[in-house]
């Protein structure tokens, strides 16, 4: 089993990396793209078994350490 | 007075901070490894700059869960003064001891230069000895010093005079040009509501002696010292 976590900056937070990448893409000829948001992707390996207890624990971990709720949103998925 | 200077893996301003405490101010201090869990016997805590835990995940994110930070939480809750410098400021924000967060500089550049700071509030342990109207010239050295908080938090900080220091130009004006990292409202440092916990991105410990080209940083340490001495005198 595996947890996949995507952490992205909140929309209200400045994302200079995303802006710089958007500019680079535009210059390379990829016209018409919208804003780019740069985040983090975490994969956590889990032993096989019941997903729900892991979801609860990792959801808490996302709020406590894996993301900073002041500046980031997260998306947690657990797949077998 | 007795100062604790915290030391995490990859702290790198710990010795400078201890040097200021011991050799510039002439007080006692000790380095406290992150695995220690007591602040008994200390009057103040300095969380120094560096790249604790390699800045992995987010700056300060992992340091804030170390054993010594649990002791800092308790120390701060009892009103003990805590000063976070650069990475120390980032750790205090991650720990929730200060509001907001420090994110990548708007320019994406690591900025290493001298800046001017205006002291926006002289109330509390960290700014009382800064003469009215005096601009502090201090060095900065960071890649993630852009202060961010939502509008409601910013309004609260402003209303409560919790913004202690702002980046300004030589004329004392908080302009976009004088803001090295894109911090909202040019915030360089702030304190909590109780005013006993403060953080700032500039490095006062690197500018506390004339031989280093500037001694303005000393005013911040002297403010803290004077506040501690007043508190001790009142307790007697």
Provide structural commentary.
The complex is a heterodimer of chains A (80) and B (236). Chain A has two helices and three strands. With 80 residues, chain A is of the alpha+beta class. Chain A has one domain: Mth169, Chain: A (2-Layer Sandwich), CATH 3.30.1280.10. By secondary structure, chain B is α/β, with parallel strands linked by helices. Chain B has a single domain, classed as Class I glutamine amidotransferase (GATase) domain (Rossmann fold, 3-Layer(aba) Sandwich). In chain B, 24% of the residues lie in helices and 25% in strands. In chain B, the strands form two sheets. In chain B, strands 2-1-3-4-11-10-9-6-7 form a nine-stranded mixed beta sheet, sandwiched between helices. Chain B has a two-stranded antiparallel sheet with strand order 5-8. In chain B, α2 links the parallel β3 (44-47) and β4. At the A-B interface, α1 of A face loops of B.
- CATH homologous superfamily name of chain A? Phosphoribosylformylglycinamidine synthase subunit PurS
CATH architecture of chain A: 2-Layer Sandwich
Question: What is the number of helices of chain B?
Answer: 5
Mean pLDDT of chain B: 97
CATH H level, superfamily name of chain B? Class I glutamine amidotransferase (GATase) domain
Structural class of chain B: alpha/beta
Q: Kindly provide the name of the CATH class of chain A.
A: Alpha Beta
Strand order of the largest sheet of chain B: 2-1-3-4-11-10-9-6-7
Distance between the termini of chain B: 15 Å
Question: Judging from the principal axes of the Cα atoms, what is the shape of chain B?
Answer: globular
In the predicted model, the low-confidence regions of chain B spanning at least 5 consecutive residues are: none
In the residues of chain A, how many domains can be counted? 1
Question: Treating each run of at least 4 consecutive H or I residues as one helix, how many helices of chain A?
Answer: 2
What percent strand of chain B? Answer: 15-25%
- Which fold does the CATH topology of chain B refer to? Rossmann fold
Number of strands of chain B: 11
Return the string of H and E elements of chain A: EHEHE
- Strand portion of chain A, in percent? 25-35%
Detail the poorly predicted runs of chain A.
none
Largest sheet of chain B: 9 strands, mixed
| CATH C-level category of chain B | Alpha Beta
């Amino acid at each position: 089993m595996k947890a996949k976590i995507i952490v992205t900056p909140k929309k209200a937070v400045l994302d200079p990396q995303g802006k710089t990448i958007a500019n680079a893409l535009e210059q390379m000829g990829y016209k018409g793209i919208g804003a780019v948001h740069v985040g983090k992707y975490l994969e956590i390996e889990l032993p096989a078994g019941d997903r729900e207890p892991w979801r609860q624990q990792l959801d808490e971990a996302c709020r406590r350490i894996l993301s900073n709720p002041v500046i980031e949103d997260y998306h947690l998925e657990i797949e077998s | 007075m007795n100062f604790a200077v915290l030391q995490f893996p990859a702290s790198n301003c710990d010795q400078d901070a201890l040097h200021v405490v011991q050799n510039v101010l002439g007080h006692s201090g000790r380095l406290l490894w992150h695995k220690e869990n007591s602040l008994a016997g200390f009057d103040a805590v300095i969380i120094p700059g560096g790249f604790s835990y390699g800045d992995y995940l987010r700056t300060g994110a992992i340091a804030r869960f170390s054993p010594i930070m649990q002791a800092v939480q308790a120390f701060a809750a009892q009103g003990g003064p805590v000063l976070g410098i650069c990475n120390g400021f980032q750790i205090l924000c991650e720990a929730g001891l200060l509001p907001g967060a420090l994110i990548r500089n708007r320019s994406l550049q690591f900025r290493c230069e001298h800046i001017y700071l205006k002291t926006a509030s002289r109330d509390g342990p960290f700014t009382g000895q800064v003469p009215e109207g005096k601009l502090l010239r201090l060095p900065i050295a960071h890649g993630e010093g852009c202060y961010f908080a939502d509008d409601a938090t910013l309004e609260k900080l402003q209303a409560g005079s919790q913004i202690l220091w702002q980046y300004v130009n030589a004329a004392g004006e908080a302009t976009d040009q004088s803001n090295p990292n894109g911090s909202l409202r040019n915030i360089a440092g702030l304190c909590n509501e109780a005013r006993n916990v403060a953080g700032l991105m500039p490095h006062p410990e690197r500018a506390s002696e004339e031989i280093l080209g500037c001694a303005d940083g000393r005013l911040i340490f002297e403010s803290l010292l004077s506040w501690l001495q007043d508190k001790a005198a009142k307790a007697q």
